[in-house]
Amino acid sequence: MSTSSYSNSGPHGPVLPPPHPSVALGFNQSSFTFEELSAATGGFTQRNLLGQGGFGYVHKGLLPNGKEIAVKSLKSTGGQGDREFQAEVDTISRVHHRHLVSLVGYCISDTKKLLVYEFVPNKTLEYHLHGKGRPVMDWGTRLKIAIGSAKGLAYLHEDCHPRIIHRDIKAANILIENNFEAKVSDFGLAKFSQDTNTHVSTRVMGTFGYMAPEYASSGKLTDKSDVFSYGIMLLELITGRRPIDNTAEYEDQSLVDWARPVCVKAIESGNFEELVDPRLEGNYNIQELAHMVACASASVRHSAKRRPRMSQVVRVLEGDVSLEVLNHEGVKPGQSTMYSGANSGEYGATAYLADMKQFRKLALESGTANSDLYGNTSEYGLNLSASTSDQSSTEYTKRTEISKDHE
Ligand SMILES: Nc1ncnc2c1ncn2[C@@H]1O[C@H](COP(=O)(O)OP(=O)(O)OP(=O)(O)O)[C@@H](O)[C@H]1O
Ligand SMILES: [Mg+2]
């Protein structure tokens, strides 16, 4: 342990780096009063409501210094105390990158906790890719968003100290600038949700199309679970389809189940017609597409350790390196450990399929399952996350525990 003068939190406490000079000198306010945020958002008026997610409402606001902000009012913080909350927030607010949405500050009032983010003006990837009446997103924009979000994630995973797992990568958490640059939002935030006891919580139900198999089976999250969710997002960009699509054509099949073999075929044959979004009408660069398909395919491998790191994905998408980079342990792109089997010692494909099938069934049968469950954007542009009955969540958790006992 270092003898740094900052290790003043006790022999077993975390060694916190010093605050950024601008914070220490008071140039940048990071702690807000509820009154200040209320004033900034016009009293949290409906007119300033940007949307609602699993954590609560998000309002647009304007600070006296002219800075536009997005204020997220947290419904709960997973039972965290003020100190813990502040420690998490301090860590997150130290992270700044071109492709990450900065946390500007926070507010802890008697009853409420709020987070203050920089405002990103042009909605979400979910809105532009799947929103009703949106113009078709061209190939160049799709690639730009894929690369931008990969860079943001790579920074979190590989360059931050401590490293940060996003935990909730999905198209609704990719915010878009006016020039269509991507900014990853809400990293580290899932810690504040009430997932601690039942890992399949209401909020997670809303994002389960992105959920890595090892998370479904054990609740364990690593940077490689983020890579999986990112892979699902790439599949969305490639195919134009939602992670869970309940239309008759693909009924009862998740995007990833459908896409895995189709990706392998496409990579082998060089023919991407079956895979690629028909709305592109053939307007794409075939080499860039091939690279994106290879990245998607490698990122959604069942075996977490065989998924690439985000920095490798960035380099492949930018065309800087050969696809070989994606071949961990000699696995060809696309040839995932799809049928790695039960004796591989890992959570195998069969168990995964069974879990997902059951999970989907519970979600659809829960009675409150609606279009929002699939991350739809409502007509009003508000993204209301799922509100699934707790009963089904608990049931699912119990069932997974039972199935694990038999593994
Ligand atoms: N920093 C921001 N700038 C501009 N708009 C934002 C910002 N953060 C969130 N929003 C808007 O608020 C909406 C709701 O965001 P929120 O993060 O609460 O929900 P979500 O992303 O759908 O789900 P989750 O709670 O899992 O993150 C987003 O869809 C987006 O339109
Ligand atoms: Mg979000």
TrEMBL record:
Residues 44-331 form the Protein kinase domain. One of its GO terms (cellular component) is plasma membrane. Residues 380-395 have a biased composition (Polar residues). It is a single-pass membrane protein. It comes from the Eukaryota. Residues 396-407 have a biased composition (Basic and acidic residues). It catalyses: L-seryl-[protein] + ATP = O-phospho-L-seryl-[protein] + ADP + H(+); L-threonyl-[protein] + ATP = O-phospho-L-threonyl-[protein] + ADP + H(+). Residues 1-21, 380-407 are annotated as: Disordered. It is an enzyme of class 2 (transferase). Its EC number is 2.7.11.1. GO terms for molecular function: ATP binding; protein serine/threonine kinase activity. Its main location: membrane. Keywords: ATP-binding, Cell membrane, Glycoprotein, Kinase, Membrane, Nucleotide-binding, Phosphoprotein, Serine/threonine-protein kinase, Transferase, Transmembrane, Transmembrane helix. SMART domains: S_TKc (SM00220). ATP binds at K72. Transmembrane segments: none annotated. Belongs to the protein kinase superfamily. PANTHER family: PROLINE-RICH RECEPTOR-LIKE PROTEIN KINASE PERK4, PROLINE-RICH RECEPTOR-LIKE PROTEIN KINASE PERK6-RELATED. This is non-specific serine/threonine protein kinase. It comes from Lupinus albus (White lupine).
